[in-house]
């Protein structure tokens, strides 16, 4: 606050130490609460009260590229400035026709 000119005098040593202690207490409380939460979740999973989260695979989000093998789809896809046309196969053609 003093650097931003919100108060006239700089913080005292006591205020600085008090703020540091407060931050450390908050970090410890957060750590304790997160550990308790993990234990409660594990207990709930064991008892069957809560279903375990499904492992889903998200494909094609703009901020998280998918590095797996891309299968061409019949529908065109467009994300931002990229455009990928859909794949076209003549009617009645299948994999058995390539003999």
Write a structural description.
This protein has one helix at residues 13-47; strands at residues 77-79, 82-84. It has 99 residues and is mainly alpha-helical. It has a domain at 12-52. It has a two-stranded antiparallel ribbon. Strand 1 and strand 2 (82-84) form a beta hairpin. It is elongated, with a radius of gyration of 29 Å. One of its GO terms (biological process) is mitochondrial respiratory chain complex I assembly. This is NDUF2 factor. Residues 74-84 have a biased composition (Polar residues).
What key phrases describe this protein's structure?
99 residues; mainly alpha; 6% strand; ComplexI_NDUFA12; NDUF2 factor
Question: Which helices and strands appear, and what pairs or packs with what?
Answer:
Elements: H1 13-47, E1 77-79, E2 82-84
Antiparallel strand pairs: 1-2
Biased composition (Polar residues): 74-84
Biased composition (Low complexity): 85-99
InterPro entries: ComplexI_NDUFA12
How much of the sequence lies in strands comes to 5-15%
Kindly report the spatial arrangement of strands forming the biggest sheet.
1-2
Our measurement of the CA-to-CA distance between the termini, rounded to an integer number of angstroms, reads 79 Å
- Report on the biggest sheet: 2 strands, antiparallel
Weakly predicted, low-confidence segments? none
| Overall form | elongated
Radius of gyration: 29 Å
Q: Find the structural class using helix and strand composition.
A: mainly alpha
Mean pLDDT: 76
Number of strands: 2
**Residue share in helices?**
25-40%
Number of helices: 1
Could you spell the SSE succession in H and E letters?
HEE
Biased composition (Polar residues): 74-84
InterPro entries: ComplexI_NDUFA12 (IPR052618)
Biased composition (Low complexity): 85-99
Protein name: NDUF2 factor
């Amino acid at each position: 606050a003093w650097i931003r000119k919100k108060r006239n005098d700089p913080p005292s040593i006591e205020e600085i130490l008090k703020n540091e202690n407060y931050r450390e207490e908050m970090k410890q409380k957060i750590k304790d609460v997160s550990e308790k939460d993990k234990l409660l979740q594990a207990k709930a999973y064991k008892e069957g009260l809560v279903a375990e989260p499904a492992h889903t695979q998200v494909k094609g989000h703009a901020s998280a590229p998918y590095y797996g093998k891309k299968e061409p789809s019949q529908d065109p896809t467009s994300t931002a400035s990229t455009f990928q046309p859909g794949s076209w196969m003549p009617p009645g053609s299948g994999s058995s026709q390539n003999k």
